[in-house]
C-alpha cells in the first residue's frame, strides 16, 4: 500500500518532561517487535482474548501472530516511539489494514481460541456492515490498538488513534472502522470522534453459539469515523 506516499511518514512529534514522542508509520524492521507487544498485552488484557485465555494456547498465539504479521506487511500500521538521547523505544501502535467492500477472507484463522475471538469480532460487524453504513468502498480497519503498560498514563492512545486520519488521507481512504472491545478503548474512541453503529454482549454471542460465558453483559462495539 505504499505507492507514491512518503514512507515512513511522521504524523506527530512532541516533547514532555525531557522525552520526545513520535507517532509515525510502523517500519518493517519493527514488525516482529510490535507483534510481541500485541501478544504480550492484547493477548492477556483485551476482553475477547482474556476471556478465551488465548495466550495460554500456543496454536492460537501463533494463529493471531500470523494474522497480525500479514496485516503489518500491508504497511498501513501506526507506531508510537519514545526517544531519549536519540535512542528510540517502541511504546505502542495500531495494526491497521485497508479493506475493500468486496474483499474475501484470505487468511486462515488457526487455533480454537483465536477462531472464537475472530468470530466474536465478525458477529458484531455482521450486525451493521460498515461499508454500507458509511457508503464507502474501502475503509481503514483496526485490528489491535495497544500502549505498553509502562507507558500508560502518557495519553498515547488518542494520539495513535488520531494518526489514522492523516494516514487515510495519504491513502485516499475516507473512513475508519474498528470493533472496540474494552470500556477504556470504547471511551477513547468516542472522545476521538468515533460513533457506535452496533454492539453485542458476550452473553448474546454465547446465545448465538459462540464460546463465551452466558450472563456476561460486557459489550463489544463496532465504531466508525468518517474523515472530512
UniProtKB/TrEMBL annotation:
GO molecular function term, any single one: N-acetyltransferase activity
Stated name of the protein: N-acetyltransferase domain-containing protein
Amino acid at each position: 500500500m505504499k505507492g507514491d506516499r512518503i514512507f515512513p511518514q511522521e504524523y506527530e512529534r512532541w516533547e514532555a518532561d525531557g522525552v520526545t514522542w513520535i507517532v509515525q508509520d510502523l517500519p518493517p524492521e519493527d514488525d516482529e517487535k510490535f507483534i510481541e507487544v500485541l501478544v504480550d498485552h492484547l493477548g492477556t488484557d483485551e476482553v475477547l482474548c482474556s476471556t478465551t485465555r488465548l495466550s495460554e494456547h500456543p496454536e492460537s498465539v501463533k494463529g493471531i501472530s500470523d494474522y497480525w504479521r500479514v496485516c503489518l506487511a500491508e504497511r498501513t500500521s501506526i507506531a508510537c516511539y519514545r526517544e531519549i538521547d536519540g535512542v528510540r523505544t517502541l511504546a505502542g501502535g495500531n495494526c491497521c489494514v485497508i479493506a475493500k467492500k468486496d474483499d474475501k477472507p484470505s487468511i486462515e484463522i488457526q487455533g480454537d481460541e483465536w477462531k472464537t475471538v475472530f468470530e466474536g469480532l465478525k458477529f458484531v460487524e455482521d450486525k451493521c456492515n460498515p461499508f454500507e453504513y458509511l457508503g464507502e468502498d474501502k475503509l481503514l480497519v483496526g485490528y489491535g490498538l495497544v500502549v505498553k503498560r509502562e507507558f500508560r498514563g502518557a495519553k498515547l492512545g488518542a494520539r495513535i488513534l488520531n494518526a489514522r486520519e492523516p494516514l487515510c488521507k495519504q491513502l485516499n481512504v475516507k473512513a475508519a472502522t474498528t470493533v472496540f472491545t474494552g470500556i477504556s478503548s470504547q471511551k477513547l474512541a468516542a472522545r476521538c470522534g468515533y460513533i457506535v453503529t452496533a454492539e453485542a454482549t458476550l452473553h448474546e454471542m454465547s446465545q448465538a453459539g459462540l464460546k463465551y460465558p452466558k450472563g456476561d453483559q460486557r459489550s463489544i462495539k463496532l465504531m466508525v469515523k468518517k474523515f472530512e
